[in-house]
Design goal:
Blueprint (H helix, E strand, L loop, with lengths): L6 E5 L6 H14 L3 E4 L4 H8 L5 E6 L8 H14 L3 E5 L2 H5 L3 H15 L4 E4 L7 H13 L4 E3 L11 H11 L4 E5 L5 H9 L4 E4 L2 H6 L3
Parallel strand pairs: 1-2, 1-8, 2-3, 3-4, 4-5, 5-6, 6-7, 7-8
Helix pairs in contact: 1-2, 3-5, 6-7
């Protein structure tokens, strides 16, 4: 298995410096990772570091709480694309979803998908806050709204991805939508288990360690 092609090499910590971003982009170039994922303020810089490569550039929208308005999420998406982002990882409105305002959640996803097109949108449903039934419902909404991926976690919640999350999402979307597993995935065995469960992408800050581990 070529694990590198699954990995979104991620650096979203608040204290990340330009030097950190440069390092992560260099690692992504060296190992041909699928993408780098950075905070919005670093998109322009990361784009310059990845120019001329096949490595994608993802950034986050409505991160990490999902509590921005639709207008703000749309504006973030527009700005990210202008600055060079090729993929968008947005957080759905978790509170509105939990409160039953499913129309709002679907509308915001549709708007971000529309603005981002043809770039893929990965929608973070933050599984740690959802019941199994809610994970199934949220995954169905993400798929119906036209997003490319259901993404498990921000990495800033009470826990990251689990295999049970993956099984629930996969059962809900089948092959009609891709899945990105993220949050707490630090070893090769964990990454391979997530891929076996249906993940097309792995969001991790441990990409180099994962692909360097012995099989």
């Amino acid at each position: 298995m070529n694990l590198a092609q699954y990995i979104d090499h991620t650096i979203l910590k608040a204290e990340a410096t330009p030097k950190d971003i440069e390092k992560v982009c260099g690692e992504a170039r060296e190992h041909s990772f699928a993408a780098v994922c950075v905070n919005p303020c670093y998109v322009t810089f990361a784009a310059s570091q990845l120019k001329g490569t096949q490595v994608g550039l993802a950034t986050v929208v409505g991160f990490p709480l999902g509590a921005s308005t639709i207008a703000v999420k749309v504006r973030e998406t527009e700005d990210a694309i202008k600055n060079g982002a090729t993929e968008i990882d947005m957080v759905m409105s978790i509170g509105f979803f939990k409160g039953g305002n499913l129309r709002h959640v679907e509308d915001e996803i549709r708007e971000v998908v529309r603005i981002a097109a043809p770039r893929p949108v990965k929608v973070i449903i933050e599984t740690c806050y959802l019941t199994p039934e809610e994970i199934t419902k949220a995954s169905s909404i993400v798929m119906s709204a036209g997003a490319a991926f259901v993404k498990t976690s921000t990495g800033f919640g009470s826990r990251g991805a689990s295999l049970e999350d993956m099984r629930l999402i996969k059962a809900a979307v089948g092959n009609r939508c891709k899945i990105k597993a993220s949050g707490g995935i630090r070893t090769r065995s964990e990454a391979e288990a997530m891929i076996e469960a249906g993940a097309s992408r792995i969001g991790t800050s441990s990409g180099v360690a994962i692909i360097s581990a012995q099989v």
